[in-house]
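Batch job 17 of 40 flagged for manual review because the log was empty.
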Amino acid sequence: KKLILLITALCSVITASSANERLNIVILLDDALGWADVGLHGDEIKTLNLDKLAESGVQLKQFYVQPACSPTRIALVTGRYPFRCGGHISVFRPYHKHGVPLDEYFMSQTMRDAGYKTAITGKWHLGLARKAYWPTSRGFDLAHGCLGGAIDYFTHDGYGSLDWYDQDTIPLKEDGYATDLIGTRASKIITEHDFEKQPLF
């Protein structure tokens, strides 16, 4: 029921008649963050910026994450239970020859079809064996971060090799701490976007 309400809300947002009437959408996904790990939910550690964003945005209070990162991402981008997409057993590893099935239609594809500029920065982890599984093939106009799962935040090595990309350039050598690079790119995407021309997802 909650998923249907979210989809209904998104449909009303993306069918508005002009770019100025449509909301811009930013999703922050932290698949290792517990419910009570933010100040908003009573944690003693203050997370003022996250709290402010949450209070002025939409909170998915009944979107339950999976016990691993790939299944959580599958549920978010497809709106389906991960086991229906082959992602319920394990996370996608670099040596896996599969990813989320190519006939699954991602939220990013829906938003791009509706006239949104789409961008992602951070961890993908939905398949990397073929370019067809990559973000730019799944509805994202801009993509930056790591394709696989666990990386060293300083060297960007994951599973024994460099796992860092920008658009379809991989591997890419980019100096810096991963979280800082991701945040900087997200800020740049937002500040350089022409909101008069089209909304941003």
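Reviewer: the log was empty due to a logging misconfiguration, but the result itself is present. Helices lie at 2-14, 48-56, 69-78, 107-113, 178-191. Unflagging and moving on to job 18.
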